[in-house]
Amino acid sequence: PGRSFGTTRAFKRFKAISPDQVNSDKEIRLPVRDVEILPEFSSNPFRDRLLRTFSSLKDDRLSFEDFLDLLSVLSEAAPIDVKMEYAFQVFDFNDDGELCEEDLAELIHRLTWLHDKKLEAQEVQLLIENVLREADLDQNGRLSLLEFQHCMRKNPDFESCFRLRL
């Protein structure tokens, strides 16, 4: 991802996660669980997937470079196609390169979960069927990246939802 975010400000936020460790080791990879507690992530229902997606070594840890990539993609300046590509990876819970019914169910649960209240199974299934009817252009029961992008381009709120301000 291109870098359009204030590097100094980003480093201050990264360092705030664990000041002693970052001061003593400039190449430190901080555990995702430590990054999740930043206020910018703590209420995001996708924080675990978001942070793991940007972990360059897929080791549930983030380097400063990983953190900067994350902030760059979530910045207002990032191109919408880049945002959509990363959102697709975040929502692909089984990491198979497609959004299947199970991925969509998990996405719906995370978006609609409120204080121990979940949608009923039939409500979730109805939502999945509606999403697939609208977005599954080749009707194979899964969404490819291109189908996801096509669908998200119709959603005027997507860009503002996939953004983070520090």
Report on the structure:
Helix 8 crosses helix 9 (121-135). The two termini are 18 Å apart. This protein folds into 2 domains: 7-73, Recoverin, domain 1 (Orthogonal Bundle); 80-161, EF-hand (Recoverin, domain 1, Orthogonal Bundle). By secondary structure, the protein is mainly α. Helix content is 57%, strand content 2%. It has 11 helices and 2 strands. Strands 1-2 form a two-stranded antiparallel ribbon. It has helices at residues 7-17, 19-24, 32-35, 39-42, 47-53, 64-73, 80-91, 101-112, 121-135, 145-153, 158-161, and strands at residues 30-31, 61-62.
What is the class of the largest domain in the CATH system? Mainly Alpha
**Superfamily at the CATH H level of the largest domain?**
EF-hand
Strand content: under 5%
Distance between the termini: 18 Å
CATH architecture type of the largest domain: Orthogonal Bundle
User: Pairing-aware structural class of the strands and helices?
Assistant: mainly alpha
* Largest sheet descriptor: 2 strands, antiparallel
Order of helices and strands: HHEHHHEHHHHHH
Q: Return residue spans where pLDDT drops below 50 for at least 5 consecutive residues.
A: none
- Total count of domains: 2
Rg, Å, rounded: 17 Å
CATH topology of the largest domain: Recoverin, domain 1
Side by side, the strands of the main sheet go 1-2
Q: Tell me, what's the shape?
A: elongated
Residue share in helix: 55-70%
Count of alpha/pi helices: 11
* Whole-number mean pLDDT: 91
* Total beta strands: 2
